């Protein structure tokens, strides 16, 4: 039982430490029905919060539906210590059903704290059929300073360690927390110079090939994500409020994120001792194998309480933060660190007629480059490859290049 609980809390930790909100459906053996509150109130930004429930193997469909109905009707707002109130403006577009979460309820919350006074205390309030919930009053600490972001490759070039150096003013709690958003560029295995153009009507389509414009290529792709680890540090035992080359996380030399250009956006905040102990408990529960003296996952509660039923266990810690961020770029052309683990490419087919192109396209192939005779210069046809080798989007990325990305191509 303890090991299963540890697995559950590890999944919870990986989710709530991310800066974006995702659907989450945790499971524990024999226990369920704990409300999970995920997200932070970040002063100076639009902050996101989400609600979910844990579930167990003994839950029925009816039970799960009842819990979801409670979440969907939950109303959330943020209060400050001078009586100010910030309503939930999360919305989704539906032309048939106008949606106002502040009136109808929602398991998702968005709060505009861009003009919030950092000198005040704040808390999240949730109202639903099970009671009124509130996080503890908290004031954002100064985030400190990120002195540098860097990386270090180990001696046998198998791991790259991402490092941060930071310092504070020494006047506040000596605990740090980081979240990391990753962006990376990668390329398809084969660059395609031609696109398939289909004209006519079904079933008598006519296929032709035309050159790609620079903006249409399917060679360059971008992807993004958030680190799931709980990234915290304490300097309580140090003589100076300063961290030098503190390791945040590591990447292996076969990680495709490092294949071309990788960017880590590191967001830093300073947290209270209570928040640090909570996250350390969650981190330990996520990595502990369930030894005899290891802590139970729920020995350390979060800071959200049901005001009507204080005995209810609620999972999650809603912190009030002020943040600072910096970005680290890692270019493989400079590091030569990445080692591809992809399978060898199959041999391409050289096809020259529209009928051949039609058959290839309809069976999952795409054109690459044109092929000419070495001596005469006569066009022989076009290389055709499996689409997964030609179209970078097959590996999960998109053509949505971040506006701040340093490379010029699209």
- DSSP E strands, number: 27
What fraction of residues sit in β-strands? 35-45%
* Structural class determined from secondary elements: alpha+beta
Gross morphology is globular
Percent range of helical residues: 10-25%
Rounded mean pLDDT is 87
Q: In whole angstroms, how far apart are the ends?
A: 51 Å
Radius of gyration: 26 Å
Low-confidence spans: pLDDT under 50, at least 5 residues?
Answer: 1-30, 289-294
Name a few traits of the molecule.
disordered N terminus; globular; 410 residues; six-stranded antiparallel β-sheet; 2 domains; alpha+beta; 27 strands; single chain
Question: How would you sum up this structure, described in words?
Answer:
The protein has seven helices and 27 strands. The chain has 410 residues and is an alpha+beta fold. The strands form eight sheets. Strands 6, 7, 9, 10, 11 and 21 form a six-stranded antiparallel sheet that branches. Helix 1 packs across helix 4 (273-287).
Please render the helix and strand layout as text.
Blueprint: H1 2-16, E1 27-28, E2 35-39, E3 41-42, E4 46-53, E5 55-56, H2 61-72, E6 75-80, E7 85-87, H3 101-104, E8 108-112, E9 121-128, E10 131-135, E11 138-139, E12 145-153, E13 159-167, E14 175-187, E15 194-199, E16 206-211, E17 220-226, E18 231-234, E19 242-252, E20 261-270, H4 273-287, E21 304-306, E22 314-315, E23 320-321, E24 324-331, H5 332-335, E25 349-351, H6 354-362, E26 365-372, E27 379-386, H7 387-390
Parallel strand pairs: 1-5, 2-22, 3-23
Antiparallel strand pairs: 2-4, 4-8, 6-7, 6-9, 9-10, 9-11, 10-21, 12-13, 13-19, 14-17, 14-18, 14-20, 15-16, 20-24, 25-27, 26-27
């Amino acid at each position: 039982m303890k090991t299963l609980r540890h697995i559950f809390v590890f999944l919870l930790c990986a989710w709530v430490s991310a800066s974006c909100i995702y659907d989450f459906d945790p499971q524990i053996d024999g226990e369920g029905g704990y409300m999970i509150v995920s997200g932070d109130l970040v002063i100076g930004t639009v902050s996101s919060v989400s609600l979910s429930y844990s579930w167990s193997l003994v839950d029925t469909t009816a039970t799960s539906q009842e819990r979801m109905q409670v979440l969907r009707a939950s109303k959330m707002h943020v209060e400050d210590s001078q009586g100010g109130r910030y309503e939930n403006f999360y919305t989704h577009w539906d032309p048939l059903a106008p949606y106002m979460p502040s009136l109808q309820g929602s398991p998702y919350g968005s709060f505009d704290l861009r003009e919030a006074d950092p000198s005040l205390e704040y808390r999240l309030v949730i109202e639903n059929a099970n009671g009124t919930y509130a996080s503890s009053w908290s004031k954002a600490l100064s985030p400190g300073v990120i002195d540098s972001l860097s990386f270090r490759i180990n001696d046998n070039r198998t791991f790259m360690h991402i490092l941060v150096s930071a310092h504070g003013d020494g006047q506040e709690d000596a605990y740090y927390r980081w979240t990391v958003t990753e962006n990376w560029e990668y390329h398809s295995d084969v660059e395609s110079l031609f696109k398939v153009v289909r004209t006519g009507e079904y079933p008598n389509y006519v296929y032709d090939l035309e050159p790609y414009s620079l903006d249409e290529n399917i060679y360059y792709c971008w992807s993004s994500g958030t680190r799931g680890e709980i990234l915290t540090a304490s300097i309580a035992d140090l003589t100076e409020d300063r961290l030098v080359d503190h390791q945040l996380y590591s990447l292996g030399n076969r990680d495709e994120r490092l294949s071309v250009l990788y960017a880590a956006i590191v967001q830093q905040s300073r947290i209270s001792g209570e928040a640090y102990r909570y996250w350390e408990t969650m981190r330990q529960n996520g990595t502990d194998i369930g030894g005899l003296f290891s802590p139970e996952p729920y020995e350390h509660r979060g800071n959200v309480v049901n005001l009507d039923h204080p005995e209810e266990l609620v999972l999650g810690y809603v912190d009030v933060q002020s943040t600072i961020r910096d970005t680290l770029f890692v270019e493989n052309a400079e590091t030569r660190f990445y080692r591809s683990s992809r399978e060898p490419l199959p041999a391409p087919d050289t096809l020259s007629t529209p009928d051949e192109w039609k058959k290839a396209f309809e069976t999952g192939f795409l054109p690459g480059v044109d092929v000419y005779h070495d001596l005469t210069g006569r066009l022989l046809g076009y290389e055709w490859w499996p689409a997964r080798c030609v179209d970078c989007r097959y590996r999960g990325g998109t053509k949505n290049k971040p506006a701040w990305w340093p490379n010029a191509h699209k």
